[in-house]
Design a protein that fits this description.
By secondary structure, this protein is α+β, with helices and mostly antiparallel strands. It has four helices and three strands; from the N terminus they run αβαααββ. It is globular, with a radius of gyration of 13 Å.
């Protein structure tokens, strides 16, 4: 199956989060730099902007980066701290 470019970019993040879920984790905090290391590219400026970051990180199920990066494997961006450049992903308790 051929992946679209956006899928290729965020697939490593999805795989990382899926592995953390398989290990029984419900909440994971990652540095932006760790996400960039996983994807092999910098996050877009919107992810770091005081006025636009919430929309970018929350995304919707139909937002490609959010869908391929975390929604499709059962995670959501719960909190973003621009000062420390971290994002906390969470899964609903009881999901498998």
């Amino acid at each position: 199956m051929k992946l679209r470019p956006i899928e290729r970019i965020y697939a490593p993040l999805a795989e990382h989060l899926a592995a953390r879920a398989a290990a029984g984790e419900w909440r994971v905090t990652l540095l932006f730099a760790a996400i960039e290391a996983l994807t092999g590219r910098p996050l877009p400026a919107t992810a770091r902007q005081p006025r636009g970051h919430r929309r970018w990180w929350r995304g919707q199920a139909n937002t490609p980066h959010a869908w391929y990066g975390w929604h499709r494997v059962g995670w959501r961006a719960e909190a973003v701290d621009l000062a420390t450049e971290t994002v906390t992903f969470a899964r609903p308790v009881g999901t498998e």
